[in-house]
Write a structure and sequence with these properties.
This protein is an alpha/beta fold. About 45% of the residues lie in helices and about 10% in strands. It has 26 helices and 14 strands. It has helices at about 20-25, 30-35, 45-50, 65-75, 80-95, 95-105, 110-115, 120-125, 125-130, 145-150, 180-195, 215, 230-250, 260-270, 280-300, 315-330, 335-340, 360-365, 375-385, 400-410, 430-435, 470-480, 485-500, 505, 520-535, 545-555, and strands at about 135-140, 160-165, 200-210, 255, 280, 310-315, 345-350, 350, 390, 415-420, 440-445, 450-455, 455-460, 460-465. The protein has a 7-stranded mixed sheet with strand order 8-7-6-9-10-11-14, with helices on both faces. Helix 15 packs across helix 16, helix 16 (about 315-330) packs across helix 23 and helix 22 crosses helix 25 (about 520-535). The longest helix is centred in the middle third of the chain and has 21 residues, at about 280-300. The chain is globular and about 80 Å long. The two termini are about 25 Å apart. It binds 1,4-dihydronicotinamide adenine dinucleotide (NAI). 1,4-dihydronicotinamide adenine dinucleotide (NAI) binds near residues 318, 349 and 393.
Length: about 575
């Protein structure tokens, strides 16, 4: 028998078992092959196979991760829809986490729309039907009083970020109940794929309060709690129990709220943001990436953010979240709260938000200025004269030719962000914005539109996707164990993102860094946020001499644990 005595053959030959490796974990045989985070499949060397009880359990060939990668590409090529590719990739993640990230991180621009938006929306709609294996924690109202016990069932103790949804508002798709679990699973994959956060420290959680979605409640295969959602005050003690249990069980953990119904999202952010380390991506992440787009736009127009007049079409969690973040950014630029708010206007399904309206919640009231009521967007534009128009209404085609032309009459370079998604809900397409503004619009969308040819020029429309911001915030929280996540951190992330767009890219219409290099862009962004966390004395670790090197040393690399390739 010709077996090398060195189990690290072809890999790390010069040190003891690396922390987290199969050797260190003490796993062997089938149990090792079924542990996705440690499994290397056919890449286990002959010596490892002998040392780890794997002989006979794998085909003869010993492969490199690049060969395995090639096979994945070949198998993916045989799938005909993105949903099939999504299901295939989730199964790959369940069997070999390293190979999954090796593949996804090799071409983020191609893979992000498959593992996340828009495919994840379809996957959530069908979650109970395409379900294969559990991932993360499922905690329902029936578990009240024993959430601590449930958290103890999670074997990983060093969890640094929990992403938790109630499934109440999933993308533009509404209440998807337990099917919403696809969102925290996908969001956390992007922490790793876009910002190099080690997957071991990330935990997706569904808090299942039921659903008001009749179709799901009547679906025999629906996997969640079969009841309608109770009132918020009934849910509060349960969410409090969850938040406290997370604090006790996972030291210094950050809670990322995602996919909650708008009113619930504001309620819980207000309840916890000054007490624990948490953030809401639908509110603050959306705000952050939109501010990044506006900072880029200011570089094009040579203006200041604090001088803009912003009109929102749509005033739900995204609209209010962005408005609040712009106010925070304007205040950092020297305006008072009142001055900043006076520059922001809202328009919702009942028309312009103004001070005679009796139906306003407190979030909207803060932006209800004195004005004559109107239900017509063009009338509102002509009266308010906004420099920026932001669509977050879920109403496709709401920015028609008259709207874009009205913005172009008032502004030489109108800033028009049509952020609703999926694609058919975008308030206007990139092509429409450029054509109707005669090539002058500074445009971003919530979805990725293709390049537009107009009057001899090529425009590359920006995608204001939250994935530019929240993974970097997550990485900063992960490494610093920050006590709080503040709006200032999101604004720093926004500025750092905008700073990475070159003049040449801006000339073509790009407001965000290219997706092909998203990992490097986010690590740079995270380093800026980490510096701010130390400056504000929010970190729960000591400040290193060289923050950049320190952060980079902690990044996840999709290579087998025992290798130094
Ligand atoms: P939401 O349902 O909470 O809010 C929608 C708002 O639009 C409400 O204020 C509603 O009154 C208003 N609206 C509905 N019909 C209208 C009409 N006919 N005229 C004027 N206003 C109308 O939804 P949420 O969470 O605020 O999201 C809105 C959209 O933004 C969604 O399509 C979502 O996918 C998108 N979004 C995009 C992000 C991005 O691009 N990074 C991030 C977050 C959300």
């Amino acid at each position: 028998m010709n077996v090398s005595p060195n189990p690290y053959e072809g890999k790390n030959k010069n040190s003891a078992p690396e922390e987290g490796s199969a050797f260190a974990a003490g796993l062997r045989g089938r149990a090792l092959l079924e542990a996705s985070a440690l499994n290397e499949g056919a890449a286990f060397t002959t010596a490892e196979r002998a040392a780890l009880g794997l002989e006979g359990l794998l085909p003869l060939s010993v492969e490199t991760i690049d060969q395995q990668h090639q096979r994945v590409f070949q198998q993916l090529g045989q799938k005909t829809t993105d949903l099939e590719r999504y299901i295939y990739l989730i199964q790959l993640l369940d069997s070999n986490e390293t190979l999954f990230y090796h593949v996804v991180m090799s071409d983020p621009a191609y893979f992000l729309p498959i593992i996340y938006d828009p495919t994840v929306g379809e996957a959530c709609l069908k979650f109970s039907h395409i379900y294969r294996r559990p991932r993360g924690l499922y905690i329902s109202l029936k578990d009240k009083g024993k959430i601590r016990q449930i958290l103890a069932n999670w074997s990983e103790k060093d969890v640094r970020v929990v992403c938790v949804t109630s499934g109440g508002r999933i993308l533009g798709l509404g209440d998807l109940g337990a099917n919403g679990m696809g969102i925290p699973i996908g969001k956390l994959q992007l922490y790793t794929a876009c910002a190099g956060v080690p997957p071991k420290g990330l935990l997706p959680v569904l808090l299942d309060f039921g659903t008001n979605n009749r179709e799901l409640l009547n679906d025999p295969l629906y996997l969640g709690l079969r009841q309608t959602r109770p009132a918020l005050d009934e849910v509060d003690p349960f969410v409090d129990e969850f938040v406290e249990a997370v604090q006790e069980h996972f030291a210094d953990c950050c809670i990322h709220f995602e996919g909650w119904k708008g009113t619930d999202a504001f309620h819980y952010l207000a309840r916890y943001r000054d007490e624990i380390c948490c953030f809401n991506d639908d509110i603050q992440g959306t705000g952050g990436v939109t501010v990044a787009g506006l900072v880029s736009a200011m570089r094009i127009t040579n203006q200041n953010l604090k001088d803009q007049r912003v009109l929102f079409f749509g005033a739900g969690s995204a609209g209010i979240g962005i408005a609040n973040m712009i106010v925070s950014a304007m205040k950092l630029d020297g305006l008072s709260d009142g001055q900043a708010r006076s520059r922001i206007w809202l328009f919702d399904s009942k028309g312009l938000v103004e001070d005679t309206r009796q139906d306003l919640n407190p979030e909207k009231k803060a932006y209800a200025h004195a004005h004559t009521p109107t239900h017509d967007l063009v009338t509102a534009i002509n009266a308010i004269k906004p420099t920026v128009l932001i669509g977050v209404s879920t109403v496709g085609k709401a920015f028609n030719q008259a709207v874009v032309e009205a913005m172009s009459e008032i502004n030489h370079r109108p800033i028009i962000f049509a952020l609703s998604n999926p694609t058919e809900r975008a308030e206007c397409t990139a092509e429409e914005a450029y054509r109707w503004s005669r090539g002058n619009a500074i445009y971003a969308a919530g979805v990725q539109f293709p390049a537009v040819h107009y009057d001899g020029d090529i425009f590359l429309p920006g995608q204001a996707n939250n994935f530019y911001i929240y993974p970097a915030i997550g990485l900063a929280a992960y490494v610093t164990r920050t006590r709080r996540v503040t709006d200032e951190m999101f604004i720093e992330a926004a500025k750092a993102t905008a700073d990475q767009v070159t003049d040449e890219q801006r000339e073509k219409g790009l407001l965000f860094p290219p997706q092909s290099n998203v990992l490097e862009a986010e690590v740079r962004t995270a380093v800026r946020v980490v510096n701010l966390v130390f400056e504000r004395k929010l970190a729960r670790v000591d400040q290193p001499r060289d923050v950049n090197t320190w952060v980079r040393a902690m990044l996840y690399k999709p290579l087998y644990r025992n290798s130094y390739l």
